[in-house]
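Hi there. Long-time user, first ticket. I'm pasting a complex I've been working with (about 625 residues overall). I'd like to know whether the download I got is complete or cut off, because the file seemed smaller than I expected. Thanks.
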Amino acid sequence: MIKTVTSVGLPVDETLTIKKRRIMPKEHKEGMKRISIVTGIHGDELEGQYVCFELARRIEESIEHLKGIVDIYPAMNPLGIDSITRGIPAFDLDLNRLFPGNMEGDMTEFLAAGMVKDVSGSDLVIDIHASNIYLTEIPQIRINELHDEELVPFAKEANVDFVWVHGASTVLESTFAYSLNSTGTPCLVVEMGVGMRITKEYGDQLTDGIMNLMGKLGIWDGETKESRKPIISRNPDDVSYLNASTSGVFVQKVKHWEELKEGDIIGSIVDPLSGKVLDEVKSPVDGILFTIREYPIVDEGSLMGRLLRKEAYKA
Amino acid sequence: MKKKIIYELKGLYRDDFRVTGYEFGSGEKSVCIVGTMRGNEVQQLYCCSQLVKKFKQLEEEGRIAEGHKILIIPSCNPYSMNIQKRFWPIDNTDINRMFPGYNLGETTQRIADGVFKEIMDYQYGIQFTSFYMPGEFIPHIRMMDWGYSTVENAMKFEMPYVVIRKVRPYDTATLNFNWQVWDTQAFSLYTTKTTTIDPKSAGQSVLCVMKFLSSLGIVKYQSGSRIKQSEVVVDTDMVSVQTAKSGIFESLVKVGEYVEEGTPLANIIHPYEGTIMETLYAPVDGRVFFMHTDPLTYANTAVFKLIANA
Ligand SMILES: [Zn+2]
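Hi, the file is complete. Here it is re-exported in full:
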């Protein structure tokens, strides 16, 4: 059943509607658990599109095993998705900096408030992001340290490779996940793949994880695959950032999620005009590359990748 | 006048990215004035250019007080201005959400860091800035309800209004906020416009900066007029008037106008049929402080902000 979460009229002959799909068992029982799958807050992140589709397909194939409610929100920012825009077009605003929103506020705040209201009360929310168009991410869950205790047990069952518990920051208080987590609705933020693309392999991996979580929550009593054991990092020193030393064109040499030794060459920054290699991007530590630059044009300072130090996963 | 490069970044196919500053006077770092951060802030650029011209004259005439240095940075973002994009060309990030910056971080963090290092030690900071919604303001000084800035000093600009803004989470990465973390008294200056030039309002802002600096004894400047008292308003006390419908926006009043309760402020017109779908009325007696200026409007949009009569 398709429902309207919130909607507002646009100036010229169009209505903006945020929609969700609710899948429920035929027989309604009291006290059923609810899981919500949310994606498309950033209009240029599409990895979650496949997960929404694939999850619904698997559920319907064996609908008799469904024992709870699954709400699927595939497009929180429909105008953005339809115009390859990360934020909300025309407003130039990042939707993920507008939460919890405000029912009495402007259009964007009103929509944000409607989203939070609809999703609130779920037993678990998965907010699927896809990095951006510049970086590719290994399937991972990011958790604000304030919500470590409630969320890490869920994250361990989500079949991701990496769980990154990061420091609290004031700016992040206006995200969708923070709004939910700080008001008692647990929300996991998944980052995987890259903007503007679908990586089917990652989508299948996460769908397995969501099915596993549904099993643990009592929403699904069919067969599920056991989750892989993620690396969990809580120490800020575990993560090493690589930034471009100069502007140029990045040519990648190593594979994503590859173990590297200090000094290994990750790629080169070249200048096609002069034909010169401007810099070699080298691994600053022994570790594993969980983020890698995807978009080749770089400015000085552009993020080239992130490494998880060896000490973090080889105990 | 000393022209200097505040920050530089190598371009691949474009000219190098440069943030240029103009220094006047010498001695302790007294006042720093910053203009454009976003590519559409043309009025802010224009205001700073007028200030550079004015300070050059003041310096030549020996009217900058001994021991005071003034720095003006007309634009922190020529790259975006030149391609008519609001935010950073490659990654669409906003420099004014990157302060205090980080010299080993991403590009706009580095720009923020490079600029901030040069401007953080000034005693007073003035930023010409813009609002995220398209619209016109009554010229005013905006300051946060947190930090070092004092209302007393904000009044020295003698602008019509001083608006006190309640700090919100995302403010913590702005220049204004971070100036104050490092003990600078920071003020944001809003003129009427952003994307087009309003010479009258720019002239007024130049005059207000002169009044501010002369009352602090930094420049010798006589405006000849009596001291004007700014009215102090808290942003959350303003009365918003919101649209219920989307459509063509037809304004019936002007910014700065005094309206009585019940005065029609604007019509929302059906985009195909020309009929009036909604008329917005003033809910209180007061002055029109902000007005939406785009020809189209969305529903649930605060198209007016009024300062109600006390
Ligand atoms: Zn995202």
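A couple of notes from our side: Residues 236-313 of chain A form a domain with the OB fold (Dihydrolipoamide Acetyltransferase, E2P) fold (CATH 2.40.50.100). Chain A has a mean pLDDT of 95.
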